[in-house]
Model the fold of this input.
Amino acid sequence: AMRTIKIGADHPDYVALGEMDGTGVRQAFVNDPWHYPLMATITAARARGLLVFEGPYGEIRDLEGLATYARRAAYLGCTGKWAIHPDQVDVINAAFSPAEKDVAKARELLRMLAEAEASGQGSVSHDGSLIDGVTIRQARQLIALAEQGAHRGG
Done:
């Protein structure tokens, strides 16, 4: 069992040491002890078509830490995160809501692909990257997520 009583937060004993600087001091960097269990859960659930909601963040006064863990969970593929205090709801909603600039870029990619297809091109590039089927699927998912948020008022 993990030797912690913290819920969903990092632990000061789970660190990596950086290079020794010129003063003979090594800086400690806190690692994320929850990364592997979260990725294993996401991978197993998504392979079965299930949604993943990350567990709670117990440090209810640490909204910056909550935001960091919530953004990480959203990036890795979680659908949402548990809130255990009313102050956490807005932070979690913000972390799981796509940024307007990302939604605008997704819409632009879809527009570019439609123009390419209309002119008989099978693919298109944007900023030096090939826009392919996976990119388009991701763009559509991002837009759908943004539209779902707009329908729920957030």
